[in-house]
Design brief:
alpha/beta; Ubiquitin-like (UB roll); Translation Initiation Factor IF3; 7 helices; 8 strands; 38% helix; 23% strand
Amino acid sequence: MIRIPQVRVIDEEGNQLGVMPTAQALEMAQERGLDLVEVAPMAAPPVTRFLDFGQYKYELTKREKDAKRRQRAVSFKEVRLSPKIGSGDFDTKKHRAVEFLEEGDRLKVTVRFRGRELTHPEIGRTLLERFAEQIKEHGIVERAPVLEGKSMFLTMASTHKPKVPDALARLAGEADTEGAAATQPANQPTAQAATQPQAETPPAPTPKPATPPAATPPAAAGAQES
């Protein structure tokens, strides 16, 4: 139930009807066989819309489920190194790790020992620490290097936010657009009102110059005397 005394109303076709008492808006919605639903409760005044509430809830739930289904889960990515890795391969692995972290994924960096390499675990530890130091701008170390069996690894968490799926970005954009359009100030003059032509006033009549009486010809004057 809407308890605010006045609301801004949008009809079922998206046209703004302006600010009006809540009771009047509710009566108008009922006359159209629709419900009065708050779509922007934090606006001043709150924005409402004429909707079929059951259909609105169904579509909203459907959109949320679709967004969750497409939502990208944060996963673990792994980069494997060897104690005798060359500088070129090291840089390639480093760039790959940066790509994972920029995507928002967590990272596991592993060094695998073979044969007698296991007798020098400090080489793997130094290698992991150097690797983490060179990508520290993109991630932080969650777990220090640990030797388990024939492998030593560390884990890193990304400092980047996971990328928002297209469905969620589109949903958020639609909500922002609707809220911005609905909260347009009511006292802002419309284009139609601003461009309405004003009634033209007729120009004042121009005074005509006085014409002197026509002079009587001498011949005519003489005829009249005789």
